Amino acid sequence: MKQFFKGRLASFRYAFKGFFLLIKTEHSVMAQLFIFSIIIAAGFYFNISTQNWINQSLAIGLVLSIEGLNTAVEKLSDFVHKERHSQIGFVKDIAAGAVTFAAIFCFIVIILIYKPYFF
After folding, report:
1. Contact 76, 93 (CB under 8 A)
2. Per-residue DSSP letter, 47
3. Which of 76, 101, 105, 108 qualifies as a FRET site for 51, CA 20 to 30 Å off?
4. How far is Cα 10 from Cα 2, in angstroms, rounded to an integer?
5. Is the four-CA dihedral 100, 55, 29, 73 of positive or negative sign?
6. Would residue 13 be called left, alpha or beta, if left means φ above 0 and alpha means ψ between -120 and 50 degrees?
7. Residues 3-44 pLDDT 10s
8. pTM over 0.85
9. Contact 73, 95 (CB under 8 A)
């Protein structure tokens, strides 16, 4: 049982290390966090409903999570095959496309939440 808890603690350490590495090293994550900070501030300013906070939080979390996975795919691809390769490029493009899907969904959610406050 002790080994189980020790293993979980190590897992959390690695997870938080990755969390902070994303924030400190990835410019796309930095830019997204800046934009999301403005959106969160707007939520406080307009006093959005609990359901809108949930929707906004899920949309933001989705984008940041998929961005993290995209970063992992890119780093692994670059490690495995350092020079340009069409198949590696294809894999990286697909991963970036997943982020785009999440970002479009997030944008739609944000528009639906804040549209009544601006129009």
Report:
1. no
2. T
3. 101
4. 12
5. negative
6. alpha
7. 888 888 889 999 999 999 999 999 999 999 999 999 999 999
8. yes
9. yes
Residue tagged 């129009």 (tokens): 119
| Cα 20–chain centre separation | 13
d(CA 18, CA 22): 6
Q: How far apart are CA 61 and CA 79, in angstroms?
A: 27
Residues 59, 62, 64, 68, Cα dihedral to 10° = -170
* Of 19, 14, 56, 21, the residue nearest 38 (C-alpha): 56
Say if residues 98 and 70 touch (Cβ distance below 8 Å).
Answer: yes
Q: Which of 15, 10, 110, 109 is nearest to 68 (CA)?
A: 15
In whole angstroms, what is the distance from residue 87 CA to residue 15 CA?
Answer: 29
Q: For helices 27-46 and 2-25, what crossing angle results, to 10°?
A: 90
Q: What's the rounded Cα separation, in Å, for the pair 112 and 119?
A: 11
Query: What whole-number distance in Å separates Cα of residue 111 and Cα of residue 53?
Result: 13
Are 105 and 59 a contacting pair, CB within 8 Å? yes
